[in-house]
Amino acid sequence: MLSKKLIGAWAFFVICLMAAGILSLTLSIVWRRPNLMLNLTFSGVNLTAGSVLGITLLATFVLSLLVITQRGTLGLKILNWILLANSIVILLIGTYIWIFTLHERNNYHAVFGQQSNETKILIQDMLKCCGYFDATDEVAFGGTTCPNQAAATALNNFCVTPITKFTDLTLNNIFSTVDGFMAIVIGLFLANMCVIKKRQEFERFEKIDSKRGMHSFF
Asked: What 3 state SS string does 66-124 have?
């Protein structure tokens, strides 16, 4: 029999894995709703990657419940290979976020430039700024804050700082959360290894006992 502590540790990481999958999938769906700053921060590809990660973690959670109820170690070994694949996916996502934040101001300059004039005006009115790097850079005239070039120049407040302040905080929180997902996957991998080792010991003892039983019979 497995010890209660080992079962408890294994169950804890499995529950955490389920929570991580639900969180990733839920946020990927919720953040698709109309929201000026979140829609600027995340592209459709980013949110799709979050959905795929969430589904992958939830599928791994379901698989873990199936294999733990089976005898032997084959299913648990397969689960560990899947956990390794999960860790690679998480590492790739985390690395992408980290690299993206290294050139955040320039990256969001391109993102801001791709927005329609209507969206730019809404962002400028919300953040009380005109243009991105300066009053002539990717500026859209209209609304209450930047009705014309003269007003934009007189305001002398550019959108790069408030935009990257929001996106930097958001992306850093996402990066920290993804790091947490990695800790969960590693924890479950190690707990799974302990379960495999214990089951292998039980199987070895069962074989020894069966051989002793046969010797006694003869």
From this structure: HHHCCCCCHHHHHHHHHHHHHHHHHHHHHHHHHHHHHCHHHHHHHHHHCCCHHHHHHHH
**DSSP letter for each residue of 127-181:** HT--SSSSTTSS---BTTTBSSHHHHHHH---THHHHHHHHHHHHHHHHHHHHHH
pLDDT digits (tens, 9 = 90+) for 176-211: 999 999 999 999 999 999 999 988 887 676 666 666
Cα-based distances in Å from 94 to 7, 13, 89, 169, 207: 30, 20, 9, 15, 46
How far apart CA 152 and CA 214 sit, in angstroms, is 93
32 Cα distance to chain centroid: 15
Q: How far is CA 136 from CA 127, 141, 169, 185, in A?
A: 17, 10, 27, 48
Q: Rounded to whole angstroms, how far apart are CA atoms 127 and 189? A: 45
Ramachandran bin of 2, using left for φ above 0, alpha for ψ from -120 to 50, beta for the remaining angles: beta
This prediction has a pTM of 0.86
CA proximity to 140, closest of 119, 158, 161, 160: 119
8 A C-beta contact, residue 158 and residue 131: yes
CB atoms within 10 A of CB 131: 23
